[in-house]
Design brief:
Order of helices and strands: HEHEEHEHEHE
Low-confidence stretches: 1-20
Mean pLDDT: 85
Number of helices: 5
Strand content: 15-25%
Distance between the termini: 54 Å
Largest sheet: 4 strands, parallel
Shape: globular
Number of domains: 1
CATH class: Alpha Beta
CATH architecture: 3-Layer(aba) Sandwich
Number of strands: 6
Structural class: alpha/beta
Helix content: 40-55%
Radius of gyration: 15 Å
CATH topology: Oxidized Rhodanese, domain 1
Amino acid sequence: MRRTLLALALALGLALGATACAIPGDPIVLDESTVIIDVRTADEFATGHLEGALNIDVQEASFDTLVSELDADGTYLVYCRSGNRSGQAIERMTALGFTDLTNGGGVENASQITGLSIVTGP
């Protein structure tokens, strides 16, 4: 019984993980209401981010408070440098009641799948 539950939990985790992150190269169509969130540090954001992205650093203590100000029923594309922090941000946002979240992976992958330019500056 324990082995079966473990296998089911692993399978569910793999299935959810696979659907939570956009596959490199698979284009996604953004609705005009989609909010793009870069969860890297402000310094990383300044070196290059997707045009129109919000910068909400997932490592800051204020992350949950800041994202709670957003519409939980909205549509969001979340990205970082490699996809790790965006995955963490999505977990936290899901716990806060957000449901329409896509992990864009790293900034280069997010640019590729959305067709948005990477811009520099604040």
